[in-house]
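Write out this protein's structure.
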Amino acid sequence: MYQMADWQTLLSCWHKLEHYTPAELPKDKSIKQLQEKLPWNLPLTSKDEKKTIVYTIYIDVHPLSSALEFVREYFRDESLVVEVNKSLMYYASLKLNEQGRYIQNSLGISTFPWALHQLEKGKLQSDSWSESFQMMCTNLLEHLEQNRNELEDDFISYFSEVQTLDNLREIQSIIRNRLGWKTDLAGHIYMKADEVYKSAIKEDDSSNSDLLNSFFISDIERVISAFQNGKVRKSVQDYIRGCLNESFKHEDLRENPEIIKSCLVPDNFPDGCWPSKYKASLMQQFAVNMIYEKLVEKEGEGIFSVNGPPGTGKTTLLRDVIASILVKRAKALVQYEEPANAFAEIGQVSISEKYTAFIYEPDEMICGAGMVIASSNNGAVENISKELPLKKEVEPYADSIDYFRTVSETCLDKEYWGVIAATLGNKENRRILVNRIWSRFEKEESNVTLADYLGSNKISNEEWQEVRRVFQEKLQAVQAEKERLNRCIKDHDDYEEKREKCLSLEIRLQEAKNQRNNLEYQKEKLEEEKLCLEERLRELTFKWEIVKQNRPGFWKSLRKGVRKQYRETLNEMLRALDEVTSGKQKCEVGVSSCEAQIALLKKIDVEHEDCRNKLLLFDKKIEVARKELKAAYADMKFWENIESHATQESCPWYSNRLKELQSELFVASMRVNEMFILRANAKSSRIKTSLDGFFQYLKGGTALSLGEIEAMWKTFWLVIPVVSTTFASVSRMFADLGQGSIPWLFIDEAGQAVPQAALGAIWRAKRVVVVGDPFQIEPVVTIPEVIMNHINGYFNLDRSQVHPSLSVQSMADRVNQYGWVSNDTWIGVPLRVHRRCLDPMFSIANKIAYQGMMYNSTIAKEPEIRLQTHFVHVTGRVDGRHYVPEQGKLVLKLLLDEISGSDELPDVFVISPFAEIPRKLKVKLQKSLQETLKLDKEDSNILHDWLKSHVGTVHTFQGKQASGVILCLGLDEQSKGAASWASSKPNLLNVALTRAKHRFVAIGDKDIWLKQPYFSELRLLGVCEGV
């Protein structure tokens, strides 16, 4: 076992595993073993003049099981349970044209056999495999392309001539020997012929190869180097610690609702929001505020996760965060009296022989809003980029919002309001962007490109100053509304304080009343006693006078005993007078004390009355605020019922007016952004020349410094703030960007991505927001389990650190301080209000995957489809592995019923857990629907495209929705074991159910499926017999 630092252990393990993805031969019946009779010698040609034949040659095809057995032997694995794998793997692939000649750059070499050879040589501890592999590939290609003859004029290489079977076998032998693993074991050569459009073949295209190795290896090596140099930012450090399952502080939001309460106050709301007609729910706004607070205001960098079950508004949340970022940037832009002063010339790039473009770098103060949306799910990232600019997504501001609108409407889509987002990533996407908005290729002359618009719109200083003034007014209005709402909170707090005081005074008042009664009684008794004592005092005084008058004379007092008796009488009288006087004084003091206490107690009456009057005044204020804010009025009852539907659906202290003002501020921000760019460009065309350089860079072939490249990206993000890409394209598209150079990274559908897939993007990002759901589709892992287990064991990592079920989402959740435990898993900031599916789909998904955590706020609408929600019991014998023809016939019947009722293809998905079922369904449905509906060629093509996008496995539909879903389950008694795989977790069924907005039909054998975990809940659909 190799001893390393914790971070290096994990990164080295990822690094090795990424080399062990076998190139598996596609399960396609058209792929055949190459025979002596070569098809390009026939020759085989396309019937369509616009198309040609391209041959894909698969070199050295072997059973994958041979490699897995080698790994078991190497690690001395004597376990009795052996992974059954019937797949075929190949070492390399290349392409030939219709004449059998090699297509340039089409050779792809698999890392898998090469990595097996490294294992064989005991080199698992090396972290520089990619350099060695690339050197081997370069030398191999040079060898295959070099002249095999001594005479230069007589050039013949392995690739230069029409391929023969012998030549291909020689190429196979050379590749096998260079890879180094089992060089004595010759495999077979397989072939596939495809018809492709001639225009699609580009001889100089570096992406001609079908064989794609891991896209993440080079970035993993970069991060290893960064750790070794001790230069790693907080986001990467935290992410790696999360992946290592280190301990983080966790605060359960259900046990500590005060955290939510303190977060959701007006001062914490961002100044801007997305201009839609919908307000955020409690947990949506909590997430937005927390992202803004933690990643902008406090720490300025880091990673934050949000869990978004289906239909809970993940995209809505991202839009609000994006809006807040752009408003914050606009606040920086308006600080400039002259926008051109925000740029400094730092270099130049040659565009053509006649034109050299200068590169300008924007001030750092305005460079914090560049955003990248990344995912392993290509559809997910494209959806966000394509939805952000849609006019329907900014209702009711569609007419007023404008951001290079002329460009977006003429070059991109007439339904777009602005050039706010771009789909980048692979080379083709980049080419399309350049051609559409900049270079005028493939577009009509009437279209106004961004280059045209920048060149023809010169903004005056007066126009810029006016835009600044309007923005500042809008900003002040937002801040004033926040202050007003803060006063509402203060009024509420004061009201609660007064109410508590009044309640306390009422209790004291009752106590005071009892005390006063007692004191009045005491006073009365004391006064009575005083009267008695006063009477006694008068009597004694009278007697005293008499005694004094009867004082014996001198001679008389000389008698024995007279003087003594007189003195005794006198003393007795004095004592009695003193006693009565003292008693009287005590009574007077007692009466005074009672009167003083009674006076004090009467003040409580006054205080209570005063409190009641003030409370009445507050009542009027509170009533006005309650009437305005409705459910958003967050009183004590609101927080006591935090687990109620009403509270979860509302955002406390958030007014319609604030929503309106925030939206208007975002609209004004986009205006500021456009005018800033146009005004800056009016001086030396500094924006246009920088973008000329940038788009030339995107095409490739430009020699630029890293500083110049980063400056061009900053300018591009200043113009188009949001770009999307798959993780697979990150290392290439951002190859020249270093650590922390991407201001914002949003990872969407993060539950579908393996942890190492996001590493390169996170390393380049300053702030990372991870959004996904670990209870939907899990990552698709192509590394064989036996290899993963043994490599993990070598690096002493356990299942909590490296395992096929772990995702970017689950790793980021570990880092998140705020969340709670669901299904024995800590999840970060869960969204809880669902707005997609009706019952019973919602209730079943909520039960099996979310422990009843969600609340359904879906607005019921009458669907335009005829499907009725049921579990339809249909049995039959399997054709193949999973497909039951009888179930396929019912799918056809249901679709025909939909089409006949509307004369158009329905808003219905046909989904299955197993890949074979949709594959066969597409073929059978295309043929049957085409024949039944008597479709012409154009309609047949439309049907083909519809089937391609509406029939598939559960995996292909995550993030999508339709009015209805047909779940075709397949299986019979002999194949029912596959149901155990599908039902091992709730994820598959959860995704299938939550694609359906209105209707859901499950077709399967009830005796198989309704006995499976989770699937047994489908009884709630209502079971009926299939016809």
